[in-house]
Amino acid sequence: MGEVILGMPGQWAHDYREKADHYTSKIGGLPDWPDLDIPVSGKLLLCDLCGGKLCLMAQIYAPLSMAERSIDERVIYVLGCMKKDCGSNPQSWRVLRLQRCKQDIESKDEPLKAEQPEEESTSVAEDKPTSQSSSVKVCDDEDSDSDIDLDDLAQALEQAATLASNSKKQDGTKHTRKIVEGPVAKKLIYDLTTPVLPCFYIYSQRNSSEGRMDKANFVGGSSISLKEIEKSSGNESEGESWEGEAYEYDKALGADRTYLKFKKQLDAYPEQCFRYSYGGNALFPVANVPKPGACKICGSARRFELQLMPPLLYFLQEASDDSSNFSIDGWTWLTIIIFTCPKNCCSGTCDEKSGNSCRCIVEEEAIVIQDD
């Protein structure tokens, strides 16, 4: 069984619709799609029950390193419908696996290329930094041994100053490479038609048996802090404590052994928003678990990868107010469990470009919802 990585709440986004990148793990906001070779089908972003647009619940950067291939470009998107009539019906939820595989010989022209992860990993916890960290380069020019004319130097400094001025006008992310080109400008265009949940970033930590805070790498940016969440809900005089108001577990379910095991793990880290354990075991609050089914491409039995936990709903509720244009009242689930294809099928696209990275693919995976 693989180790368990916990997704813990970090800082709130300055703007719930702000653009990050697909290397960023977060809750809410808008999906950060990479520069795709193929577009995401519009049908995948619509609710099967009401036909309305789905909102992003979670975006989790989850690269894999396997014997036969590495998948550095891999993201799990969990989407749900906020309409009360749809609620926790599995048909109103969708899980998308977006990936681009890397072969032994790299392509010379890879629009999604990023620097290699620091160490081999099969979890969401310790992989390449986001675009908001050290992976971004300000300049891609190579060093030269030739003499530089003073006029050329002055012109270069002037251009650098112009680029620096333009970068300050960006939306807060540090995408400085090719800053004057079109793709960067698009990051400032907000999608005002898609429903959006309050957005906060995620950092990861290993799950330890003692329940001790064991912080790992930040996933959503170097400035993420758990205290940002605690400050917004730390007034005990108003009776807004986590245990007292948000979830009354013993009243919600019978205290059977399955549920008590679930509650014990939840109490060890009461702020965990998701649990990630590729190929590991899920935590079930209810004993009767529907089977996730087989992969539609290869027929392999899907296996557990991650699950969303109820504290996630608590933090979203804390962000709501009378002026909010969203409602999650219809969401009463205790956990949402994601199962994915163990072979990470690419619909044959890896073979189409032998020796190169395959193009981006988007596949729908299985979701199991356990309600209270």
UniProtKB/TrEMBL annotation:
Coiled coil: none annotated. GO terms for cellular component: cytoplasm. Residues 107-146 are annotated as: Disordered. Residues 256-370 form the Programmed cell death protein 2 C-terminal domain. InterPro entries: PDCD2_C. Pfam families: PDCD2_C. Residues 107-116 have a biased composition (Basic and acidic residues). This is Programmed cell death protein 2-like. It comes from Rhynchospora pubera. The lineage of its organism: Eukaryota, Viridiplantae, Streptophyta, Embryophyta, Tracheophyta.
